[in-house]
Amino acid sequence: MLEVTNLNVYYDNIHALKGVNITVDEGEIVCLIGANGAGKTTTLQSISGIIPKREGTVIFEGKDITKTKANVITKNGIAQVPEGRRIFTGLSVLDNLKLGAFTVRDSQENINKDIEKIYERFPILLERKDQLAGTLSGGEQQMLAMGRAIMSRPRLILLDEPSMGLSPLFVEKIFDVIKTLKKEGVTILLVEQNANLALSISDRAYVLETGKIVKEGTSIELMEDKSVKEAYLGA
Ligand code: ATP
């Protein structure tokens, strides 16, 4: 479904990604683990067209999207939930959800049905629907960011650090929603600092170190890998 080949990204003269290759098959959850600064966020943002690529190709559902603009990539079926959420803090919860559907060509009635579905997944967002998004708690903002991404009816979600800064209860809720999305057929590329959690929920994983993929395998294989255990799983 997604094929990233020889991705090279620079920030001025900092070579942040050095030939990254990643594939994601339809229906999979694939995770990317690595230390701070390894290039995880850069990988997601260059796939979604936010950061320009110096070299390499990105193919999504057979189509070359290497040079496609971010808003067109969203329209093509990829949604990103960025680190730090980036919701519209000055708008209500409901308006944030509505904005998530800006690329969807469908009747208002069907878009309203999508909003109802988001409220079923995240009942707290219904309770808070008229509240300014900036006044939500961190966990609620994460739910809103995911809800907003789902509103674009993505086939692939790029999810950046969904557990960051959240209490265990919220983390559990967010990861339950990730599992439900997978069951519904959404494919997910997940970046997560908490490698234990990421490997427990994903099918396959890549380990990124200073801009390079140094290891890949099924999540079960990586969970049992000695060097992964030592470096990332606190063993
Ligand atoms: P973290 O888990 O800390 O968010 P990460 O694996 O997501 O880390 P990136 O944010 O992708 O890492 O950063 C990769 C490298 O690129 C780092 O060395 C970082 O300092 C650098 N970098 C990221 N964004 C910029 C930028 N806007 N300008 C310059 N350098 C950047």
Automatic annotation (TrEMBL):
Residue span(s) of domain ABC transporter: 2-235
GO-annotated biological processes: L-amino acid transport
Pfam entry (one): ABC_tran
UniProt GO MF annotations: ATP binding; ATP hydrolysis activity; branched-chain amino acid transmembrane transporter activity
Domain of life: Bacteria
Record keywords, A-Z: Amino-acid transport, ATP-binding, Nucleotide-binding, Transport
InterPro entries: AAA+_ATPase, ABC_branched_ATPase_LivF/BraG, ABC_transporter-like_ATP-bd, ABC_transporter-like_CS, BCAA_Transport_ATP-bd_LivF, P-loop_NTPase
Keyword flag Transport: yes
Gene3D superfamilies recorded: P-loop containing nucleotide triphosphate hydrolases
UniProt similarity note: Belongs to the ABC transporter superfamily.
Name of the protein in its database record: ABC transporter ATP-binding protein
Originating species: Anaerosphaera multitolerans
Organism taxonomic ancestry: Bacteria, Bacillati, Bacillota, Tissierellia, Tissierellales
